[in-house]
Structure formats: C-alpha cells, structure tokens
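@here heads up, posting the sequence + SMILES for the flavin mononucleotide run so it's all in one place. Ping me if the SMILES looks off, I pulled it from an old spreadsheet.
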Amino acid sequence: MAKVLIQFAHPTLSKSSIQKTLETYCRKVKGVTFNDLYEYYPDLYIDVKREQKLLSQHDIIIFQHPFYWYSSPPILKQWQDLVLEYNWAYGPEGNALAGKQMLNAISCGGGREAYKETGYNRFPVTQFLLPFNQTAHLCKMEYLPPFVVHETYNMSEDMINSYGENYARVLQSLVNEEFQPIHYQDVEYINELTPVPSFSH
Ligand SMILES: Cc1cc2nc3c(=O)[nH]c(=O)nc-3n(C[C@H](O)[C@H](O)[C@H](O)COP(=O)(O)O)c2cc1C
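bot reply: prediction finished. Complex structure tokens:
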C-alpha cells in the first residue's frame, strides 16, 4: 500500500465549489493524508521541518489546487522555495525524495479545447505544469500525469460530484498501487485511467 500526501492550496476555500468537493471525496479515502497549507500557514510561514517529515512519511505527493494564472496559488511556490532544500531534496546528497512519485490535481476555468494549439490558451495543461514536472525530476521523483477538471464555470452539481468520484477512484488506485508505468504512457490525464460511468472526458 502506498501512502499518499495531498498538499492542498486554495486561498479562498469558502468560495470554492470544485476543490471543496474534491476535498470532501479525497478525505474519505484511507491511506491519504490531507494537508491544507493555507489552513496551517495563513501567513505563509511554512514549518519546514514539519513539511519535510510529512514528505518523508509518504510515497506519493499530490499538489492539489485551482489553476491560477497557468500555475498554482502562491503558497505552493513558497512551500517549494523553503521545503525543497539543497542536499535534502536535491543536490549531491539530496536523496530524501528519491523514488517517490508526484503529480498535480488541478481545476481549470478553461475547457480542454482552450488548452489545444488552436485554443485561446495555445498550450496543453501539461506544458504549463512543466516546472512541477522538472522539479520532480531534479528531486529524483517520478512525475505522473495530472488529474485535471476542465470548464469549472457553470458545472452542474452532478458533474462536480462525478469528478469527486473520479478523483477518489484515482486516489484509491494510487494507494492500492494498481497503476503500472505502462498505464501512464497512453493518457494525458490520470483521470482517464479510472473513468466514472456518468461522463466521459
Ligand atoms: C486568480 C485566478 C486565476 C485564474 N487563472 C486561471 C488560469 O490561468 N487558467 C484557467 O483555466 N483558469 C483560471 N482560473 C479559474 C480557476 O482555475 C477556477 O475558477 C477554479 O479552478 C475553480 O475551482 P474552485 O471552485 O475550487 O475555486 C483562475 C481563477 C482565479 C480566481
């Protein structure tokens, strides 16, 4: 069984619809630790030792957040700058995270079409996430395909809950170590490995 750590970042959770629902679903999955960064560090003073201990205790690290300006809310950048220390996370003696896996779980206002070459965002989501991908690589981690919810505006309750169910299935499969490297080769998003019957991506 893999231990999954969710590093959650939403600066205005009281106004959230999608991420709040994903939170509710993922808190039900055994083997998942939910770490709400804005709740713990509203002033952005990150407890580095606490965070490094959490990382050491888990096998799969998920950065869960709304997509803001083609990236994450700022606390995740602050977290990276402080927690991923030289010769701890990277560098010649930095092996604390080696062999672990990392992915993003994000929600985007833009639809999937908007993130095509011909769309108004011009590039796929996976290209915008390259800094996370490369950070994982530098820290000797494996970067997995992201979990992505598109077109968050005007989404029906049923659809939101379907994504919640979809996310819970992904998390359960990660905990149960059901995914093999070959599974990741054919999908853009990890969502596609655990579809729910009520909708297709
Ligand atoms: C400051 C801000 C920046 C945003 N930037 C993007 C963006 O770059 N791309 C995108 O697709 N959506 C963007 N959005 C839309 C959010 O990603 C979307 O509203 C959010 O994921 C919905 O989740 P929630 O209901 O949990 O807040 C942005 C929204 C805000 C408030």
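MO: Residues 5 and 63 are 9 Å apart (CA to CA).
MO: One more: DSSP finds eight helices and six strands in the chain.
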